[in-house]
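thought: fold this chain, then report.
action: predict
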Amino acid sequence: MSGFSPNLLFFLDRLQGFSTNYYMLVPQNKNYASSNDIISVDLPSNALLNFRSLVMHCNATCVDSTNALNARLPPIQDLIERIEVSVGGIILSSGNNFCNVLYEAKRALIEGYGDDSTLSHPEYVRHTSYVDGCTIETGVCEGYAPGYHGQQNGDTVFAISQWDGFLGTIHPIFFDASLIPDIKIRLYCASNNVMTVSPSQTLGNENGDFADTSLASTTSGPGQCHSAPTASVLYKISDISFSIECFSLADGTYDNLIASQMNQQGFLEAPFKNYTTFMNTHSGSTNFSVSAASLDRIWTVWRSSDYNQQSTPITIEGHKINGSYVSTASGTYTASLDIGKAQFDSGGIFGMDYDTERYKSRYFNFCEPVPFHTVGGDYGGWKMQVQLNGCYMPNYAAGASQLYNISRNSLPVNTKAKKMSRRQYIKNFCVQCFRLNFPDSEYTYTLSGLDTRSSNLAGSIITQNVNASLNANLTIFTESTSVMRIGSGRSIEIVS
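observation:
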């Protein structure tokens, strides 16, 4: 029978004693947070946990003490800057700094990464909110909390469900929490500089428009707005709660399997991804060093020197920025209705939906490390390599287009590269990824990356034709696979 195709056979496996349910978890300290606050929550113990189902539910609101600014929220995931996981009081994964930048870097290259259009607030709002359909009046901040636009007490409109590091990559996916001490999660909130503030709601980037930028730029990103806001805006996360799916399996077969594995090798192994962050003002060479059992990828992210200043939203290249009004020939139209005009031809091209509005915060705008020029100006010409001890990757100085191709080939298997134009890549999504492990290692749970624990790896990002006076910001993320070894008596050991 084993020689026949399963499509020709009649069979059915049975799993008895299985049950599942969702549980709500309440933060330990408080159910609201703002810039630089810490949100803590304990996960259930003595249960099979589906870490991929872990969700943080919340509301979010912009806060403006002057009551005169048009503040806008970023994607909700960007409000969390570091995720720390501890077990029995011992830090299991300290989390990397700027995990929100890493999240946006992956969104820049991977199609649909982390995009929950219903609950994650993935795009910036200008005038009419796609969250609740309400119009945001001039001089009013964007906000969603009880009392806003008829929202009832107890309702939440946002959810964070994309977790990098331990929570999003631990294997097995259905993890038996009874094998280890109690798990605590600490979420560190980002600074207020992830927010944007605009002088008005008018479509465009001229003086006083929503995405207002100056004509001249002295950095690698678009120029700052003509009239910089005189006050900064804050954000507040409220009504915080968590939910997770838990399983129970009243079947002695599973318990016997775990006990047999433990007796056979003395421990159980649970791999997960770890990230380390390095940041520097780049002037030709930026160094980093990492010790890992399996160094899998290196991510490089470029931002302009003024990325950390709260400013107006930046229009993503190609999308609507110029005013375009409908005709008054018919009585059903009005000349005051601005429908906008796409930058790349009148209706957009490539089927990329350019005939829309789309914005980014300066904090998350990734631009090539050369002087910014408007369309038609000279740009480019820079090249880059990664040096790992005495080896170079690639073994030639690669330009932006070549780096993009390398990055596409370095993405995890079963992911699709984001669809974008070259102009968008170099001006809004300039992220590089270098894979050092076997292509499908993540899915076969194989440690195939570089073992740098005994080699004292010294890495460098080396560039050519990058103007040091730009003070471009380079953020490097090293991605490695760590292993949690679980022993008898709920003891743990981390091999990183």
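thought: worth noting. The helical segments are 99-109, 166-169, 252-265, 400-410, 422-427, 441-444.
final: tokens above.
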